[in-house]
Amino acid sequence: MLRKKNKHIFRKIILIFLGIVLLFTIYQYRQVRKEVLYNRQNGPKPVANILKMGIEESSGIILSGDKKNYYWTHGDSVDYGETPRTSIHGFRFDSEGAREHHEVFLDGVTNLDWGDIAKDKNGNLIVADTGDNLIRKNFILYRFKEPKLDQKKVEKNEIDKITFRFPGGEELNNEAVFYADKSIYILNKEYGKTMMYRLMEKNIDTRRVNIIDYIGEFKFLGGSRASNYMDAATGADISRDEMTMVFNTYKGIYLFKRDKENTDFFDGEVYYHPLKWNFKVNQYEAIAFTEDEKNLVLTTEQGNVYKAGIEEFELLREAKSAESIQEKPIEIGGDRQGIKYKMKHMIYLIQVVVMDLIFR
After folding, report:
1. For residue 332, what pLDDT band results from cuts at 50, 70 and 90?
2. Residue 22 domain-assigned?
3. Which residues of 143-169 are buried (b: 16+ CB within 10 A; e: fewer)?
4. How far apart are CA 62 and CA 212, in angstroms?
5. Nearest to 189, CA basis, from 283, 75, 294, 274
6. Neighbours of 57 (CB within 10 A)
7. Residue 339 located in a structural domain
8. How far apart are CA 138 and CA 165, in angstroms?
9. What is the DSSP string of 83-124?
10. Which residue(s) pair with 202 in the sheet?
């Protein structure tokens, strides 16, 4: 009799638990659905397409330092056995679309997974080979003078190969890079948040593996809790005065304003702009300021180019304290192989794919 009663109580507990899970799932679904529909109505529209020029899977973009309204971009890595993409592409675009395509081959480089492109204050471009699905410990930054319009190739001896590793040897995925404070900044690709690292120019040594410094992290604020955990940073850029930093995700753009150099961007004012969330059409991979810095240009793996006005951004959070950046030590050991990180990455990626299929 007692055993039957215990079974009955246990069955009730299971049903109550399943009911709570169902209600929570329905609530999360409604929250995400509301946000997706809002983004599709309020996100920017495409202004050009660069796929027709042979620029495949654009995963980084930067405004030229010496050519007016001119952009540099590059392709992502390719499947095993295919010819590697080791070129950068220059182009302009206007109301009629993209034009003036210019391809420059980089000699002696590899493309394991090029995540982004940046420029420094010395007339150099920086191509970041920092991605590749969490299977590497050493990452590479290729630094070279910005090519001329008639240039077809950058020689191997003209390219600095900067190899670095994350503190503790973490294997992270990274697709967003920018240059500020005489440093190269890296934003990692993690669902629900991003972590910021930097490699100071004065500490760079091309003869050895450099250790990059951890600065801090930012948890996404631009949507519901559920949708934020299905989002990741894939591109970044900086304004000329280095006071405004932006990074894009799959469904929005975050903009940070600070008042002083060498202070944490994540402590500044935070603004947000939605993007149309649809992986099949708009897999946003890169972002850059326009010449007048009144707009932002984004590229997608599908070749579409978008433009978003900075005045249209919404303030999400006021600035915090503006203290100078202090590199934060990370304890060596623990999850050095990134096992927990990889498992979380796969779970959130599955959620993204499922939600994308549901709302397509």
Report:
1. very low
2. no
3. bbebbeeeeeebeeeebebbebbbbbe
4. 23
5. 283
6. 19
7. yes
8. 5
9. PP--EEEEEEEETTEEEEEEEEEETT---S-EEEEEE-TTSE
10. none
Domain region containing 210:
43-359
Between CA 247 and CA 229 the distance in angstroms is 16
Return the amino acid letter for 146: E
Half-sphere exposure (Cβ direction) of 187: Cα atoms closer than 13 Å = 32
Tokens of 54: 């042979």
- Looking at the domain assignment, is residue 10 inside a domain? no
3-state secondary structure of 263: strand
Closest to 129 in 3D by CA, of 147, 142, 145, 120: 142
Q: Is residue 126 assigned to a domain?
A: yes
The count of structural domains within the chain is 1
**Partners of 61 in the beta sheet?**
73
Show the DSSP H helices in the chain as ranges: 2-42, 225-228, 339-359
Q: What is the pLDDT of residues 194-249, one digit of tens each?
A: 999 999 999 999 999 999 999 999 999 987 777 787 789 999 999 999 999 999 99
Q: Which residue would you say has higher pLDDT here, 215 or 339?
A: 215
157 pLDDT more than 70:
yes
CB 227 within 8 A of CB 252: no
Annotate 322-347 with DSSP letters as a single string: -PBP--B---SSSSTT-HHHHHHHHH
Tell the residue number behind the tokens 């690292």, with chain if given. Answer: 197
Q: How far apart are alpha carbons 206 and 6 in whole angstroms? A: 68
Q: What angle do CA 327, 328, 329 make, to 5 degrees?
A: 120
For residue 152, the surrounding DSSP H or E stretch is none
- Comparing CA positions, the residue from 77, 160, 137, 83 lying closest to residue 111 is 77
pTM over 0.90? The answer is no
Residue identified by tokens 């204050």 is 121
